[in-house]
Design brief:
The chain has about 500 residues and is mostly helical. The chain has a domain of about 210 residues. Helices cover about 80% and strands about 0% of the residues. Strands 1-2 form a two-stranded antiparallel sheet.
Length: about 500
């Protein structure tokens, strides 16, 4: 039996050990089975950790029994426990989906490498989420990023190499900014433990090195999170990566980066420094509004479904950071619950796009004329997911957007509430582009010969899509967890 007290470290160790094991085995089927097992274990451990946090409060795990701040600490509260569940849920669904998808989109000789890197990315993302050490956070961020670069490049499309290279360059710049910010904090406090940094900042919280650290960390993390206008790597990476990779990254990687920003803002620097001494609230608000409008308009003009969904992700990240900019319980709850809701919805949409790739070999809209007649389940799923992006009542997207509108009204910002609604109307336009092509155009000779995607792809995508609808109809579970996460963050140093 596994001692539940060690689950925080096992979340990282299990997928980290599975990665080299898959390389040693070098078998496609064995690698897939190991990746699925690691992902399912991650999900089970995440749920157990969330329940323990809700029952007993913050979990502190000292690596090697060295107490913090002398040793490395894994520290889990309501905020990162919620993130772990999103990460585990998506990974446990995408891993089974990858078996059929990877056979079409990745050269056979690279299949084992795909599953090894998948586990490595999962370990890195899990480590980012649970660690309470600033430098460890940077290390895990780079582990997940390096794995992601190669996963994107594994696609058969040669454009994936360029997309991975662009992501590598911008990701490296972001990592450099982050490590400079961490170095400045270490210079001022003499510690790398995040909780200890928050305590030791004390009277120097408003000093120039600390404010410079805040600036470097904001830019570096925003690059990783693809916050507008630092998003230029994202459309190419999502559009040209294997569909399983697009689903994983869109649902989790940028969301984990946003979580890191929240952790530094609220738990290390504190709301007084970030939102009062510095105008970060106003900056985030402005960038979020521009992202919601401009990226949604850009999505409308895309000729490729995956690229359309990628620009939609940039817009949806704007909704998340909009909630953060209010620095209120309602706004932060709305941002965090949208982080979860968009994760499951967009993960499902990229998986359904991968189903089209499986049959059609492309996601170009001009090749999808009449596709709904030959692939009705896939197309209906994309429509339902699109309704979630719009925020139609009965979907998870409505719940989070409703909380963002409430937060804007609480702040007396009726104009921002209007912008949230207006940007959702733009989402109607870009979702309609797919509907018009798939449902209202006559089938071409190519699409008329197609048949519905295999169950191995549709069932995993359906699970995420069902979750998106369920959490829209019964939002108490996600809202409760998001509210607890918001309270944990807002309780940080002031």
């Amino acid at each position: 039996m596994i001692d539940s007290a060690h689950l925080p470290v096992l979340q990282v160790v299990v997928p980290l050990v599975c990665a080299p094991l898959i390389v040693l085995v070098r078998g496609s089927r064995a690698g897939w089975a190991i990746a699925v097992a690691a992902s399912v274990f991650f999900l089970g451990a995440s749920i157990a950790i969330l329940m323990e946090v809700q029952r007993a409060g913050v979990i502190s795990y000292a690596i090697g029994s060295w107490p913090a701040p002398w040793g490395i600490e894994y520290r889990i509260d309501a905020a990162n426990a919620f993130m772990l569940v999103l990460l585990g849920f998506v990974a446990a669904v995408v891993a089974p989906y990858a078996w059929a998808s990877v056979r079409v989109e990745v050269p056979r000789e690279n299949h084992y490498l795909f599953y090894a890197l998948y586990c490595l990315a999962l370990a890195g993302l899990g480590g980012i989420t649970v660690t309470g050490d600033a430098f460890n956070l940077f290390v895990f961020l780079e582990i997940s990023s390096l794995a992601s670069y190669v996963l994107i490049a594994l696609d058969r499309d040669r454009r994936a190499l360029l997309a991975a290279y662009q992501y590598l360059i911008l990701g490296t710049i972001g990592a450099t900014f982050i490590v400079i910010g961490v170095g400045l904090l270490y210079l001022m406090t003499g510690t790398l433990n995040l909780a200890d940094i928050a305590t030791r900042l004390g009277d120097v919280r408003q000093s120039r090195p600390v404010l410079a650290a805040l600036a470097f960390l904001t830019v570096g993390i925003s690059l990783k999170a693809a916050l507008f206008p630092l998003h230029m790597w994202l459309p190419g990476a999502y559009a040209h990566a294997p569909s399983a990779v697009s689903a994983l990254l869109a649902a989790t990687a940028t969301k984990v980066s946003v979580y890191v920003l929240l952790r530094f803002y609220f738990s290390v620097f504190g709301t007084t420094t970030v939102f009062t001494a510095m105008p970060m609230g106003d900056v985030l608000l402005a960038l979020s509004i521009v992202a919601m409008i401009v990226a949604s308009i850009a999505a409308f003009f895309q000729s490729d479904l995956k690229r359309l969904l990628a620009y939609s992700s940039v817009a949806q990240i704007g909704y998340i950071t909009l909630g953060v900019s209010f620095a209120s319980a309602t706004g932060l709850t709305g941002g965090i619950v949208h982080l979860f809701n968009h994760g499951v919805t967009k993960g499902a949409l990229f998986m359904l796009a991968g189903t089209i790739v499986f049959r059609l070999g492309s996601t170009r809209l001009d090749r999808m004329a009449g596709l709904a007649r030959s692939m009705p389940i896939t197309c209906a799923g994309i429509v339902v997911g699109g309704l979630g992006l719009i925020g139609v009542p009965g979907t998870a997207g409505f719940v989070s957007k409703w909380y963002l509108v409430l937060a804007a009204i609480e702040a007396g910002a009726w104009g921002i509430a209007f912008v949230v609604v207006a940007s959702s109307m733009i989402a109607v336009a870009y979702v309609w582009r797919f509907v018009e092509v798939a449902y209202f155009r006559a089938p071409s000779d190519e699409t008329s010969r197609l048949k519905e995607g295999p169950a191995a792809l549709l069932v995993p995508a359906g699970i995420l899509l069902a979750a998106s609808v369920y959490f829209g109809l019964v939002p108490s579970l996600t809202l409760g967890a998001a509210s607890g996460a918001a309270e944990a963050l807002l309780a940080g140093p002031r």
